[in-house]
Amino acid sequence: MWGSPPFSRSIKISDLHPKRSNRFSIKLNNLEKSNLSKLLNVTQIHSFQCTINLQPSEPGWLIRGKINLVVSQLCVITLEKVRTKLQIPLKRYLIPDSKKRSNESVLLDLDLVDSDPLNKLVELGDIISEEIILVIPQYPRKKGAGFQKDTIFTENDERPNPFQKLSELKNHMEGLYPNKNKK
Hints:
By secondary structure, the protein is of the alpha+beta class. It has helices spanning 30-40, 97-100, 124-135, 151-158, 162-176; strands at 10-12, 22-26, 44-57, 60-74, 81-95, 115-117, 121-123. The protein is elongated, with a radius of gyration of 28 Å.
């Protein structure tokens, strides 16, 4: 979807404490907010807060976190600004590639469905951006906004169906010449 994340927070796995949780608080500067706004196709990011915990988990690492985000989007009906407030829980596993592919006949562990390969670096900007994209409304609507009936379409809907006329003509012809079509 993108060549690089809208903001970068690379963490070296070797720098993490191997026996306890490693906590990170992520805030964005104005340029990073602007880049994320473009990626999300929103008019403005009012607030962004994210806390991440990386903790050891067999066979790799577990990422847990929470993303709080307030954005302005355009209503798809009225084109007015709509404020969207999101609280997104984050849970991902980082698993070595060798563990993922070790035995394909093993039953699928549903806890490991949201997993990424474990590399020397973890790009939290990618992971956070992906989670937001999955949750943000693609078609935001202002509260109470809806489509109105258009008289052009209702008039067209009330006109007789031309195929119905042909069907009536066929039935009439079969009534006049009942034996001609039957063999």
